[in-house]
Amino acid sequence: MQRSIPALCALFIAAVVAGCGPDYPKCNKDKDCKEKEFCVNGNCQQCRGDGDCKKGEVCNKGRCESGSKACSADSECGPDASCIDGKCKACASDGECGEGGKCNAGKCQRASTKVPGELPPPPAACQLEPVYFDFNESVLSTEATSAIERNAECLKKVAGRGANLVGHTDPRGTEEYNLALSDKRAQSVKERLSRVGVDGGRLKMVAKGELEATGTDESGWAKDRRVDVQW
Q: Which residues 6+ apart lie within 8 Å of 224 measured at CB?
């Protein structure tokens, strides 16, 4: 069948468009990026987390860089490092862990310091647990609601002691977006705890975004998407 010139032009243009992807560094999927790069929120970048970088490098805003992550506390470092001289790294000796501290397999075990008027630790049988969220969500799932209710019972047993609600996200997304999302997650947990009888004045929200994310795949990212409920 003979086609008209306009019809042939339309077919040619459609074929060309179908074979074109977004201009680098824009992307729709990992295949649109260079080798060993990842498509995150429509942009190609070298890494999604420290696990995508070489040993001794850290992922900083999508780029692998030499050196250690800056920190102000051990909680900002991964499970195998501590905050030493303002950097996350493995300790090599007890002397790096402060007075009375011990270096155990690269992680500092800090000596506890008793502060005058400090409340006693909660009973061992009363343990707070993290609250996990689905991808890009701040709405509570059934499992999250159950975890919050168990935490509420624990908080009610320890009168007068406050708790921090520390919001986290996985490393995907921009730093600003993840910070806002972690705040929304902490707010959801606080609202639910208040509804089941916990005094909101005892609860302090802390948004950390992707700062402490360690996952490099979906199983790890699922653990990053949480609110830690801490004494």
A: 168, 169, 170, 171, 210, 212, 213, 214, 215
> Where in the sequence is the domain holding 55, given as residue range(s)?
21-65
Residues 178 and 222 in one domain: yes
Q: 41 near 172, Cβ under 8 Å?
A: yes
The two tokens of residue 16 are 């060309």
Question: How many domains does the structure of the chain reveal?
Answer: 3
119 is a domain residue:
no
Task: Check pLDDT > 60 for residue 83.
Answer: yes
Instruction: Kindly give the interhelix angle for 142-157 and 175-195, rounded to the nearest 10 degrees.
Output: 60
pTM of full prediction above 0.70: no
Written in H, E and C, the secondary structure of 99-141 is CCCEEECCEEECCCCCCCCCCCCCCCCCCCCCEECCCCCCCCC
Instruction: Encode pLDDT of 174-187 as tens digits.
Output: 999 999 999 999 99
Is 200 in the same domain as 225? yes
CA-closest candidate to residue 172, choices 36, 38, 23: 38
Q: How far apart are CA 125 and CA 116, in angstroms?
A: 25
